[in-house]
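Weekly structure sync - notes
Attendees: PM, LS, DV (DV joined late)
Agenda: review two folding runs queued last week.

Item 1: First target. Sequence and structure tokens pasted below for the record.
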Amino acid sequence: MEVGDESKEPMRVGDVKEGVASIALLPSGSLSGHFIQLPQSICYGLHGTELACEMECSRGEDYRLIKLTITDYKAKKEQTVVVERRGHDAARFGNIDHAHGWEKDIVDMVEQKEGKKKILLSFECETLKSDKAAEDHIKQFMPKLSGLDAVVNIGRMSISGLDFEAEAADSKQDSPTS
């Protein structure tokens, strides 16, 4: 397979947003943070919860599925995607193609995107802050998370396939009109 294989490319390259993410990883397995793209001044909220595996998962001790909600605060809209998390304190996030071993509703969430434009996301920790450095960062940028013993991951993130306007149109079509 060549590097330029079009089956792996997002549908519209212009939709790719690349920036920096600052993510607090909480001891509970959930996460909270921000994605920032400059010079466009795009800022999205990132909120994730770990999805429990109902069977033994054989992908390694550091493997988790995260239900990640991306929030556009200006538009007051959000979209959700299921991503895999690898690594313990220094995390990496990426898309998954299947969720075998998880509950049926999680498998359906991962696989339902076939008809819709799929959200593609990647993140890799470049800077890890813990203890006092993490707490100082959290107090400055995420004060509501202060005192929760989180570690902070900072790194490059890319997101494609986000379309908050299409999501609003889909929800209007899904609502009953009787």
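Item 2: Second target, run right after the first with the same settings.
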Amino acid sequence: MPFGCICEGMKDIDARITAPELASIALAKLTPKIVAFCPQFLWRPSEFVVCDSSWVDLSSVPEPMQPYFYHECLHPGSRKNSKTPVFKPKQFPLFVIIPESQWREYESHKLAEEEMSASDTEHPVSVHCPNPLTGPTSPPATASSFNTGAAAHLLSHGIGLVGI
């Protein structure tokens, strides 16, 4: 499984949820999958960053205690002369970003692991080297989707294969 393909979805996230709460849920959902991808590497989840689809870091939003996506769920009423907004749930993607420095350490770890494995079995190992013209690969973003709902509870156990 390619690392960048870790993707989870969640239903019935309260539309009034704040950015720190969203980040916490995204990290709780995806960190175990990142760790499971390479349990031999010492991941530092405290350094992971959660961003929305506009690459806004949820830990640095100007008003962290305000509902983060609620205003995007409110739409003008469809009735003639109606000024009352209508709530419509929708999905919002969030991404868990592994910092570049940590990703480089992971790549070094994997390379050392492959070299050790090759020397143990005395078989040559094929190592992918980045193209010097295109540069090294970027650290991946893992995705998840939240489906906001007006429900008072934050989470249900419904999981899909869409982003947060």
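Discussion on item 2: DSSP finds three helices and seven strands in the chain.
Action: LS to circulate a short write-up before next sync.
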